[in-house]
């Protein structure tokens, strides 16, 4: 474990310990010092004051300026010095992920960039990383919405990974995954292919376990031609929910097609017609066709 410094934050880079000094401090001989008041590094690293001289505003001298107090051979303002806050030797605590402060001779702390004190508990300091905490994403008051989803915070922005059978149809992660999916589809996000008399849906072979195009909106009277090998990839109308497939004998895609390389269906009535591959629906081989007047 790398040693800490009262005026900086320890770090480990490529297996070597180092220190990042707090604002107003400089790294001299492995320590973070205030060169305005440090007798050994007065004005710059290694510039030491002699004898009883004090370091005042980065210059060696013999007396402290008005409003400052001599503490341990240094002149300081006990109203603002976090190492001598209100009196000499009173060191303000430094909670995690913060910089200690002294304002009006009262100790406090300021959170480091991208950290926040959301619970108001000084004991645990700035406990929240606002770039990655989904309950405090970029702000103590912003919790990512996990409705029907697993919420995450990435670089201070909410993201959602939708649960099965749900989707983020409006593209707004603030309301989670607000819409239900029918065989992976919603009409609002389906591809509009209305006005075409015939549409070919391919599957299997180089296409894989999916239908292309999938999730489409077509006009009444459109002929849908399924083109692929039905032997390994049978197809039937019905729904998939909760990992269970339920065939629908009222579907236009009935009965189940189990052989051949092509099958044609003319969709003559408006409606919503989901379908799937009984052998591979668990791999996502399912879709829906929406028929509109």
List its traits.
293 residues, mainly beta, Immunoglobulin-like, six-stranded mixed β-sheet, 26 strands
What report would you give on this structure?
- The chain is mainly beta and 293 residues long.
- Among the domains are: 78-129, no CATH class; 130-180, no CATH class; 191-292, Cupredoxins -  blue copper proteins (Immunoglobulin-like).
- The chain has strands at 8-13, 16-21, 26-28, 31-33, 54-56, 59-61, 69-71, 74-76, 98-103, 106-111, 115-116, 128-129, 149-154, 157-162, 166-167, 179-180, 191-192, 198-203, 211-212, 216-219, 222-227, 236-241, 244-247, 262-267, 271-276, 286-292.
- Strands 17-20-26-25-22-23 form a six-stranded mixed sheet, with no helix packed on it. Strands 19-18-21-24 form a four-stranded mixed sheet, with no helix packed on it.
- Strand 5 and strand 6 form a beta hairpin.
- The model has no long low-confidence stretch (mean pLDDT 93).
């Amino acid at each position: 474990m790398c040693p800490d410094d009262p005026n900086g934050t320890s770090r480990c880079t490529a297996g070597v310990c180092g220190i990042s000094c707090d604002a107003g401090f400089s790294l001299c001989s492995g320590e973070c010092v205030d060169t305005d008041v440090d007798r050994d590094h007065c004005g710059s690293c290694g510039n030491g004051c002699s004898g009883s001289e004090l370091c005042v505003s980065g210059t060696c001298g013999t007396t402290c300026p008005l409003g400052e107090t001599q503490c341990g051979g240094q002149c300081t303002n006990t109203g603002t010095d976090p190492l001598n806050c209100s009196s000499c030797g009173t060191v303000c605590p430094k909670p995690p992920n913060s910089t200690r402060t002294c304002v009006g001779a009262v100790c406090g702390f300021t959170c480091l960039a991208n950290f926040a004190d959301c619970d108001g508990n000084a004991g645990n300091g700035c406990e929240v990383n606002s770039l990655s905490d989904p309950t405090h994403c970029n702000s103590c008051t912003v919790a990512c919405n996990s409705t029907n989803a697993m919420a995450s915070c990435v670089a201070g922005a909410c993201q959602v990974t939708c649960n099965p059978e749900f989707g983020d149809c409006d593209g707004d992660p603030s309301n989670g995954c607000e819409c239900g999916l029918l065989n992976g589809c919603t009409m609002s996000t389906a591809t509009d292919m209305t006005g075409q008399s015939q549409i070919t849906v391919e599957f299997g072979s180089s296409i894989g376990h999916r239908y292309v195009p999938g999730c489409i909106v077509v006009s009444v009277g459109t002929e849908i031609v399924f083109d692929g090998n039905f032997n390994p990839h049978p197809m039937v109308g019905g729904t998939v929910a909760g990992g269970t497939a339920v065939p629908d004998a009222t579907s236009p895609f009935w009965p189940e097609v189990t052989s051949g390389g092509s099958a044609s269906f003319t969709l003559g009535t408006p409606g919503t017609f989901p379908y799937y591959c009984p052998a591979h629906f668990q791999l996502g081989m399912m879709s829906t066709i929406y028929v509109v007047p």
